[in-house]
Amino acid sequence: MKLFDTAIVGGGIAGYTAALTAKNLLLDYVWFGEEGFGDKLRFSEHVTNFPAVSGNGAEFASLLQAQMQHEKVILTRKRIDGVYRTGETYTLSSAGELYLSRTVILATGVEAGGTIRGEREFLGKGVSYCAVCDGALYRGKTVAAVLSSPAFEEEAEYLAKFAGNVFAIVRYPADGLQAENITILRKRPIAVEGDDRVRRLVLEDGAIETDGVFFLKNSVPPDALAFGLETEEGHVKVDRMLKTNLPGLFAAGDITGRPYQYAKAAGEGCVAAHSVRAFLRENIKK
Length: 286
Ligand SMILES: Cc1cc2nc3c(=O)[nH]c(=O)nc-3n(C[C@H](O)[C@H](O)[C@H](O)COP(=O)(O)OP(=O)(O)OC[C@H]3O[C@@H](n4cnc5c(N)ncnc54)[C@H](O)[C@@H]3O)c2cc1C
What we know:
There is one protein chain. The protein is an alpha/beta fold. It folds into 2 domains: 3-111 and 219-284, 3-Layer(bba) Sandwich (FAD/NAD(P)-binding domain); 127-216, FAD/NAD(P)-binding domain (3-Layer(bba) Sandwich), CATH 3.50.50. It is 25% helix and 27% strand. The strands form 4 sheets. Strands 1, 2, 3, 4, 5 and 16 form a 6-stranded mixed sheet that branches. Strands 6-13-7-8-9 form a 5-stranded parallel sheet, with helices on one face. A 3-stranded antiparallel sheet has the order 10-11-12, with no helix packed on it. A hairpin with a 3-residue loop joins strand 10 (189-194) and strand 11 (198-203). Helix 1 packs across helix 7 (262-284). It binds flavin-adenine dinucleotide. Flavin-adenine dinucleotide binds at residues 9-15, 32-34, 38, 40-41, 43-44, 47, 49-50, 79-80, 107-109, 218-219, 225, 253-254, 260-263, 265.
């Protein structure tokens, strides 16, 4: 398996700037994310506080896209579902596919709604963030899938192939969701409850009995993605050079804390890539 110098996780402005800087520093990088620099950037109404940008998010994204093409920055359109330290390197998984890297830059942003009560407590005991990874464990059972946007409907339909019943909890019309065993509930989730495992999902006006709850959203809690990562109030704990408590793992952008701003995210993406180079020089004498 190819060993990369750095794997950058997150397709927003922090991840993009990290990839651009890594490329300019001649690092052998792989950058994971979705096309378009993320919803937060694309759907911003008016950007007035980023150098040389004056327009809406879509215009900002098209400027970035043009630069990305000109500079030949390569995006790998995959979602990473786990980052594991394996000896001196990191293994990243994406729906069963594995990637190996000496270092990692996490730039996965933050989810506006945060987490609900019981979500973290029952992680691995019925709570999951990845339908493709854990869906098969629920063959014939009842599961709830809390979808943050239509982008996750495919994952909910994937779950429906295994589960007996799927309750899709949504805050939007969800007309596209299709499977006989999916029940759509337009309600706000309040809490996950259970004993040694998940037993129910409490909604704003009642509860559903369920064997598992899948939270399908853009940014999962960072320590659920990278095991052993130290966090503080939901953000990754970093120093000035964006080092985390895990050697060779750096973090950049909203994930490291406020202010949530493009300029701060871009700056941190750049610093994180420089920190990767310093780390490799020190540890691998590159
Ligand atoms: C409506 C709105 C308007 C805003 N307007 C402004 C503004 O005018 N000026 C300003 O400075 N800031 C603004 N912000 C804040 C700004 O959007 C954020 O600070 C910035 O986008 C943070 O960039 P980021 O790269 O850290 O994270 P994000 O932009 O959140 O990008 C993270 C990306 O990583 C992806 N990702 C997450 N997990 C994974 C994974 N496991 N594998 C692969 N990819 C993954 C996500 O899908 C997402 O695309 C606005 C925010 C919102 C919501």
